[in-house]
């Protein structure tokens, strides 16, 4: 029943966003017609760098079971396309299947790799958010900044909290369970894994910055990190329309509203940036196809 509700909500989100795009078609076309192409191309380049770093991380986390070129690049790009386009937050779960088909990695191990990269994302995003909440001159109220800081602090302390939980006497018996052993493995991070993950988030923020500038939204890098923070809860719920419809718009409209941009204008910027990002993901799909053919030729 709960799954059906999520599906209905995801479809509803897509219909609402599509309807808004149609109603605001003339305004949306105006935003896209006046796009700054140098910023858009720079954003595409950084987007591809982002997925090159994700491929490197898959190579590291899988203990070099996948070579960076073409296997890890193909896996990262294909997973990125699936995560973005598939509804109901189902695309993220395709990584174990992709790793199975590309490198014959078992589904259980593939699931552990997926968990580990998501834990790394959570932890390293927290580190970036912590720095940005303290150092950037974002025009938000002190209360909102405090909440931002506290969320970031909790995320950045994630590895320490897991070690503390494992040390509790009441969990000592659980440590012998297979599930607990798996959790200990995926929640332990190496230095190189952390550095690469920090680079991934820097690429994400830089891509968002270029996208914003491309659609003539002149906000700073600190504002971009704030937008990413606002979008985080929307990425954790199993409700997502086709092509990330609803989640993207909701995060951008809410974040821009807190930054002082009216909701109607925020919707225009959200729709325009979404259109640009869809082009980036389509380019990622082309890369997935090319590397897939390369793998087939090798076989």
TrEMBL record:
It is a multi-pass membrane protein. It is found in: Cell membrane. InterPro entries: L-PG_synthase/AglD. It holds the Pfam family LPG_synthase_TM. Keywords: Cell membrane, Membrane, Transmembrane, Transmembrane helix. Its main location: membrane. The keyword Protein biosynthesis does not apply. The chain crosses the membrane at residues 35-56, 68-87, 122-140, 146-165, 186-204, 269-290. It comes from the Bacteria. One of its GO terms (cellular component) is plasma membrane. This is Uncharacterized protein.
């Amino acid at each position: 029943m709960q799954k059906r509700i999520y599906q209905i909500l995801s479809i509803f989100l897509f219909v609402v966003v599509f309807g808004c795009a149609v109603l605001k078609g003339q305004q949306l076309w105006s935003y896209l017609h006046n796009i700054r192409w140098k910023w858009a191309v720079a954003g595409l380049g950084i987007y591809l760098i982002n997925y090159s770093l994700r491929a490197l991380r898959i190579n590291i986390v899988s203990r070099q079971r996948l070579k960076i070129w073409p296997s890890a690049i193909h896996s990262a790009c294909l997973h990125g396309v699936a995560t973005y386009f598939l509804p109901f937050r189902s695309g993220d779960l395709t990584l174990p299947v992709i790793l199975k088909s590309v490198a014959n990695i078992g589904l259980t191990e593939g699931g552990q790799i997926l968990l580990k990269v998501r834990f790394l994302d959570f932890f390293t995003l927290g580190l970036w958010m912590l720095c940005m909440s303290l150092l950037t001159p974002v025009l938000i109220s002190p209360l909102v900044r405090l909440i931002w800081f506290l969320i970031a602090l909790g995320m950045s302390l994630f590895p320490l909290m897991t070690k503390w939980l494992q040390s509790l006497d009441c969990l000592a018996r659980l440590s012998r369970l297979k599930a607990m052993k798996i959790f200990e493995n995926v929640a332990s991070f190496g230095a190189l894994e952390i550095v690469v993950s920090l680079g991934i988030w820097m690429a994400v923020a830089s891509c968002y910055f270029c996208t914003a500038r491309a659609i003539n939204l002149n906000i700073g890098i600190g504002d971009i990190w704030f937008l990413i923070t606002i979008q985080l809860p929307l990425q954790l719920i199993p409700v997502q329309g086709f092509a990330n419809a609803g989640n993207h718009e909701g995060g951008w409209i809410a974040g821009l509203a807190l930054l002082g941009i009216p909701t109607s204008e925020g919707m225009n910027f959200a729709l325009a940036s979404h259109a640009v990002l869809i082009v980036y993901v389509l380019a990622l799909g082309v890369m997935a196809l090319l590397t897939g053919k390369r793998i087939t030729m090798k076989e």
